[in-house]
Amino acid sequence: MPRTDDRSGTRVLALDLGTSSARALVLLAEDASPVPGALARHKIAPTYSTTGSATIDLHAYVEGLLSCLDELQQNGHLEDIAAIVLSSQWHSIVGLDARGAALTPVITWADTRSVQPQLDPAFDERAFHARTGSWLHRLYWPRRIPWLLSEVPAVSFAGLPDLVLERLTGERVTSVSIASGTGSLDLATGEYDAEALAIAGITADRLPVIVPTGWTGVLSASYARRWPGLAGVPVHPPTGDGAASNVGTGGYDESTAAVTVGTSAAVRVVHPIDQAPELPWELWRYRVDDKRAVTGMAFSAAGNLHAWLTTVLQLDEHHQEPTGIEIGSSRVIAIPFQAGTRPPETVPGGSGVYFGLSFDDTAADLLAASLQGASLEIDRGLRMLDALFGRELQVVLGGGGIDASAWWRRCLTATFARPAVVCAEAEVGARGAAAVALGLSPAPGGEHLDPSPEEAERVAALRPRYSVLRTLAVQAAPELKVPTGS
Questions:
Q1: Does a structural domain hold residue 451?
Q2: CATH of the domain at 404
């Protein structure tokens, strides 16, 4: 995807709609690299409860995002902006009334509330998965919507990025990328899937209109007055954060797997949607844009696992790496199910396990075992993608967890037993959204890592034991109980 015009000197405003923060930053349009100092961040604190809720206040979220743009303007960063792009968390949903006002907070991917759908006896979930790239799981709208309809008199539904886009432009539309994350899209046609809508009990006119990748809007008059430098600037449809992160890391074709480690982790491959390989049951598939899909596996424990363990063990900033522990050498095996597993597995949160603890083990041993366990989980997905695409994929690494831990970078490389390139840019989602909108192919630009043969050999010897203990942990996990009330 080479550039087709000269963008030197122009800039891109990227809005990154995360679960833990909303960010606005400015990038150079020629290569999607960040402008130094042009970043504003609003911290988000989702609300969790014992009923399974995991929600975000919509009004506070949007107002916090708008304040980020105010901050950028005050610091003189909203000049020479040629495009506005968005990267957003997938899977969120809000129930709306007849006037389009929110009846619920933002329901995030972590929310476990749901109801069992009423299914036709002929329903074939494997065919559904092959067509939509998702499972009939509470993560997705076909299960979310019937539950919401049992709770509130919702007339229509939208996700967080759809409502942010509507607030900015006055148009409630969505992209094929965001729509694919609802689990309600026919991936081949790029339209809402008839069976998914039937399971949800709604028609397509109750969901945001899907616009093509080339669609653009502009800021409404009030926001054009608030930020004069953005008046008339095209606003591009949002890209799902997983797809954006892949492209932003440098994994934008079927030769390369991108491993991103943030709060959670994922391994994914971007590829053409036409003639896409048959989707294995264990993997999901969403859309990047009109022509490309992204296939991968996600993991609920990554940076959150590291943050939890360093807090529990009361490790100060000088002891947040397992210094002195050789990769693959720990006799302690950690199965990182503290936050459960993603579909199609149904292991609930609270299922993390340590095997082989002794009185000789230290905080560094526990930390090393946890990072090793997360690495082995990601490796499972990478090897499935190798098989799917018929080659040993190149690997690029990106995200805050990658950036924060040299030990973890080495551990991942040894676990994969192949070289890897680290993305030099931290804001891979924003970078990827700009690349999708403008047709760029950013290079990782960071250090090249070669696995240590000794470390790779130790991890290879560890893998069979990990696999056996993982199976035991899955079998011993408590029964998943899904609360149906609010």
A1: yes
A2: 3.30.420.40
CA angle 289, 285, 121 (to 5 degrees): 125
Count of Cβ atoms closer than 10 Å to residue 14 Cβ: 29
Res 486: pLDDT: 34
Mean of the pLDDT values across residues 427-456?
95
pLDDT for res 9: 67
**Does residue 294 sit in the same domain as residue 226?**
no
Residue 208 corresponds to which tokens in the numbers above?
Answer: 């945001």
Residues 6+ apart with CB under 8 A from 361: 332
Tokens at 429, concatenated: 């989602």
- Please tell me the distance from the alpha carbon of residue 243 to that of residue 287, in angstroms, as a whole number: 7
What is the pTM (predicted TM-score) of this model?
0.92
Element (H, E) at 178: helix 176-180
Positive or negative, the Cα torsion across 64, 66, 72, 75? Answer: negative
- The encoded tokens of residue 438 equal 């403008």
Q: Residue 268 corresponds to which amino acid?
A: R
- Tell me which residue of 209, 407, 238 sits closest to 320, measured CA to CA: 407
**CA-atom Rg of the chain in angstroms:** 22
Share of residues in the chain with pLDDT > 70 (%):
97
Q: Cα–Cα distances in Å, from 200 out to 54, 119, 267, 352? A: 21, 10, 29, 33
Which helix or strand (DSSP H or E) is residue 460 part of? helix 453-476
Classified as helix, coil or strand, 119 is coil
What is the per-residue pLDDT across 337-363, written as a single tens digit (0 to 9) for each? 998 898 999 888 889 999 999 999 999
HSE (CB half, 13 Å, CA atoms) of 177?
31
Q: Is residue 2 part of a domain?
A: no
DSSP SS3 for 185: strand
User: 203-261: per-residue pLDDT in tens?
Assistant: 999 999 999 999 999 999 999 999 999 999 999 999 999 999 999 999 999 999 999 99
- Boundary (domain end) residue, out of 237, 270, 289: 237
Closest CA to 300 of 180, 417, 162, 139: 139
CA–CA distance, 412 with 372 (Å, rounded to integer): 8
- Partnered with residue 16 across adjacent β-strands are 23, 87
Among candidates 250, 245, 240, which has minimal Cα distance to 286? 240
Using CA atoms, how far residue 357 sits from 153, 332, 366, in Å, is 52, 6, 9
Give the pair of three-digit tokens for residue 42: 């609003």
Q: What is the pLDDT of residue 323?
A: 86
Domain match, 125 and 72 both = yes
